[in-house]
Design brief:
With about 180 residues, this protein is α/β, with parallel strands linked by helices. The chain has one domain: Alpha/Beta hydrolase fold, catalytic domain (Rossmann fold). It contains six helices and six strands; from the N terminus they run E-H-E-H-E-H-E-H-E-H-E-H. Strands 2-1-3-4-5-6 form a six-stranded parallel β-sheet, with helices on both faces. Helix 3 packs across helix 4. The longest helix is centred in the C-terminal third of the chain and has 17 residues. The chain is globular, with a radius of gyration of 15 Å. It starts with a strand and ends with a helix.
Length: about 180
């Protein structure tokens, strides 16, 4: 069975974002087809319709190319878009790399609702010092949605820094289990 993943970048990033390149390389070594994407708009529109459509197009391209088991993987803003799409059009698995669920003084209730609605196996890799995505918010949501697992990177914030390889390795192994079964 062919497995694949769409990798969406963080805000302002592109398909060449370093974390996406590293993640795609690791997945490809496992035999998972990885498609990195860029969003065409520099600034997203309020309802994120263009971004969600671009994500759908890449996903559909993989499916049309023979991928039978598919994951969505998003870094930061890309994760927000992947979670929103997964809430209504569930993939086989979802991975969020640093979810900016609640920046200081700016809770994102729509993002919380999307995570609560996700019905597929979901892994969130999060730094324990991430000010954009406090663990307390994610843990509260995970307590309500049993599909969600959280892998905590100790000692880092939104940028995974010295723990990036650890987080990506955990995500790749987690995906291997879900997409090969």
């Amino acid at each position: 069975m062919t497995a694949g993943a769409v990798l969406a970048p963080g805000y302002g990033g592109s398909a060449d974002q370093a974390i996406l390149v590293q993640c795609a390389s690791r997945l490809e070594r496992s035999g998972i087809v990885a498609r990195r994407m860029s969003f065409t708009r520099a600034r997203p529109v309020e309802d994120f319709a263009p971004e969600l459509n671009e994500l759908r197009q890449v996903r559909d391209g993989l499916r049309n190319g023979g991928v039978q088991k598919l994951a969505l993987i998003g870094r930061s803003f890309g994760g927000r878009m992947c979670a929103r799409l997964a809430a209504t059009e569930p993939p086989d698995a979802l991975v969020l790399l640093g979810h900016p669920i609640s920046p200081p003084n700016r809770p994102r209730l729509d993002d919380e609702a999307a995570l609560l609605a996700v019905g597929c196996p979901t892994l969130i890799v999060q730094g324990d010092h991430d000010r954009l995505g406090p663990l307390a918010v994610l843990e509260r949501i995970a307590a309500e949605n049993r599909q969600i697992e959280i892998y905590v990177l100790i000692g880092v914030g939104h940028q995974f820094g010295k723990r990036q390889t650890e987080g990506l390795e955990h995500a790749a192994m987690w995906l291997e289990q879900r997409l090969r079964g």
